[in-house]
Write a structure and sequence with these properties.
By secondary structure, the chain is of the alpha/beta class. Helix content is about 35%, strand content about 20%. The protein is built from 12 helices and 16 strands. The longest helix is centred in the C-terminal third of the chain and has 15 residues, at about 375-390. It is globular and about 70 Å long.
């Protein structure tokens, strides 16, 4: 990939990078950063709106095609800036209509992005990190280790790429995706500034114009990030809960050791309190794992835990993958758990498994991570050891 600066300019677009001029990648600039960029190159701030429309509503990455800009400005932009998205490596399509893209980012690692069509909606599940800085015990992404945060251009670039892929040539791309959920690879609130810039672009009327109710940031419970998000933006918030007690959640979601349930739920309540619309709720994500967190007692504990938090609950049957021994609960077990919550007065949905035939289901995204933690290597070794210890079938000749 070429040498591109994805961050907002400080004072001028002509920045030195490794001794050479590095063009500013406009794809990841928030609306405010785009205005600052325009001022830095001697243009009026309103030029930012024009650039945002060309890039995010029309999907144009060639300045020469931005015909309502003067020739002089187009030539200037070509010298100091670029619009550079990540690279699509492959595209897979499930029998149920789900699509998954493998996307290469700077440095050579790959992330995964999933589109889920359903009843007229197109929900895009995007990634925020290369791998994940956390290591939830039931998630394939965490087993791949962690390399780095994605830049804002690499995050919004997933929306841009998929929107272009879904749109005929010459048509506006802004309505191609109806919902965005940050539930792919990574913990969004550990990459706060780049995630915030991307969220602002998704919700901005000069860009994709997606409703704040249809842009969801999911977190495992990064309390400072939840509080900062409440001060600076207002997308929908989802909490990856997965356990009703600190003792169990410490095992499933190790971040809980730093931010235990009481602190996390209090932060979620503060987030709701910061919103002018008092009817909004937190989405609670709960992955059901057979024999681990799926009992009637766990359901009763969950109902009690959440009794004071305005929320809706999304139950996610565990989607198996090779590096763990967890199993999906039976349908009867899932229904028993759901029934307890319904009787307690909660709105409860069970997420339909989508895209599991292309490893695109919830918890299965892995990508190709140049792991700098060696976590992936350790899990591969553990899986190999388990496999070697299993009894082997005996071939008996007649």
């Amino acid at each position: 990939m070429s040498d591109v600066n994805d961050q907002a300019p400080v004072s001028t677009a002509e920045q030195q990078h490794g001794g050479e001029v590095a063009p500013v990648n406009l794809l990841g600039l928030s609306p405010e950063a785009m205005r600052e960029f325009c001022v830095s190159i001697g243009e009026k701030p309103f030029r930012a709106q024009q650039l945002l429309k060309w890039i995010h509503q029309r999907g144009i990455d060639d300045f020469s095609e931005m015909t309502d800009l003067s020739k002089a400005l187009r030539e200037k932009l070509a010298r100091v800036a670029c619009v550079q998205a990540p690279e699509i490596v492959s595209e897979l399509h499930s029998e149920d209509g789900t699509s998954k893209w493998l996307v290469r980012v700077a440095g050579g690692s790959c992330i995964e992005t999933v589109l889920i069509p359903d009843n007229g909606r197109r929900t895009l599940c995007i990634s925020s990190q290369v791998g994940c800085a956390l290591d939830c015990s039931f998630c394939a992404t965490g087993k791949q280790g962690f390399q780095r945060d994605l830049t804002a251009a690499e995050i919004i670039g997933q929306v841009w790429l998929v929107s272009k892929a879904l749109t005929a040539s010459g048509e506006l791309i802004k309505k191609a995706v109806s919902n965005v959920v940050m539930m792919g690879m990574g913990e969004p609130l550990l990459n706060f500034d780049n995630v915030l810039a991307s969220v602002e672009l998704m919700m901005n009327d000069y860009c994709y114009g997606i409703s704040k109710r249809r842009v969801t940031v999911s977190t495992s419970g990064v309390v400072p990030g939840i509080d900062e998000l409440s001060r600076r933006s207002d997308p929908s918030l989802a909490l990856s809960l997965h356990a009703p007690t600190d003792e169990l959640r410490n095992v499933l979601v190790p971040l809980n050791k730093k931010y235990p349930l009481k602190q996390v739920l209090a932060a979620c309540q503060r987030y709701l309190d910061s919103l002018p619309d008092k009817k909004r709720k937190i989405t609670i994500e709960y992955t059901l794992i057979k024999g681990v967190n799926d009992s009637v007692e766990h359901a009763e504990q969950t109902a009690h835990l959440l009794k004071d938090l305005p929320c809706k609950i999304n139950l996610i049957p565990f989607n198996p993958f090779s590096l763990v021994e967890y199993e999906r609960p039976s349908n009867n077990g899932i229904n028993r758990f759901r029934q307890v919550l319904l009787q307690a007065g909660y709105t409860v949905t069970v997420r339909t498994t989508r895209g599991d035939d292309i490893a695109a289901a919830c918890g299965q995204l892995a990508g190709e991570v140049a792991d700098r933690t060696r976590r992936s290597e350790r899990y591969q070794q553990l899986a190999a050891a388990r496999s070697a210890a299993e009894p082997q079938p005996i071939n008996v000749r007649a």
